[in-house]
Design a protein that fits this description.
6-stranded mixed sheet; alpha+beta; 212 residues; 4 helices; 10 strands; two-stranded antiparallel ribbon; single chain; tt1808, chain A
Length: 212
């Protein structure tokens, strides 16, 4: 059961200001996904660099706090046992879209353990992405939401550590300006969050199990 509306609420002024990528007031050179991969292959960027590619820009990832890491562990523990055959959980691993290579806190993808030995999962492989959020709530709602909606990833969960709720975004509209999810529902402790993969509800996850 959800307490939220069936459509995303109008963006607050601060969210509207975040609707477009922030661009410095001087000439810059956007990075393609291919160039980003080349930088990794050549060792220019390594696993120790706290960055991800978002809409052509190399972005610094938000520093992690204990509640954030605990939420990731809880989400993995709650999702893994209820996934149907052919699906699995990946934690803080990259997915590749046309213009970005985000590293969601959790992704539910189709394929076996060796399916992505030579490539990262793409939108067609991804049923759900999840971000645990404390200090970057507006960014994850708007900017990450825009990236995931543009890629037509069907379901996006935000574990909102500020308000202690789970926000579920669905029905992406890649062609809207900016791309966005048409539907948002909010789940509180005591309620259950439907786990939907390929349009089918496959499990019910207690919201309390996702919140530290």
């Amino acid at each position: 059961m959800s307490t939220g509306t069936h459509a995303a609420p109008p963006a607050a002024p601060r969210q509207q200001a975040l609707a477009a990528p922030r661009v410095p007031p001087f000439p810059i050179y956007p990075i393609s996904v291919q160039k980003y991969h080349e930088m990794i292959q050549k060792g220019i960027l390594t696993e120790d660099d706290p960055v991800e590619l978002l809409e052509g820009w190399i972005a610094i990832k938000t520093p992690r706090v204990p509640a954030h890491d605990t939420a990731i562990d809880l989400a993995e523990a709650a999702l893994r046992p209820v996934l149907p055959p052919g699906w699995r959980v990946r934690v803080q691993n990259a997915i590749t879209t046309d213009d970005s290579q985000p590293e969601p806190d959790v992704a539910v993808v189709s394929g076996d353990l060796r399916a992505f030995a030579a490539r990262h999962p793409g939108p067609a492989d991804t049923g759900l992405v999840l971000e645990a959020v404390e200090s970057s709530l507006d960014t994850d709602r708007v900017e990450k939401g825009r990236i995931y909606a543009r890629a037509a990833i069907p379901i996006y969960w935000i574990i909102n550590l500020v308000d202690r709720q789970v926000e579920v975004y669905s029905d992406p509209d890649p062609r809207s300006s900016p791309p966005a999810y048409r539907r948002r529902e909010t789940y509180l402790p005591g309620q259950t969050v439907p786990l939907v993969l390929k349009g089918q509800a496959v499990a019910q996850v207690p919201a309390q199990d996702l919140l530290p």
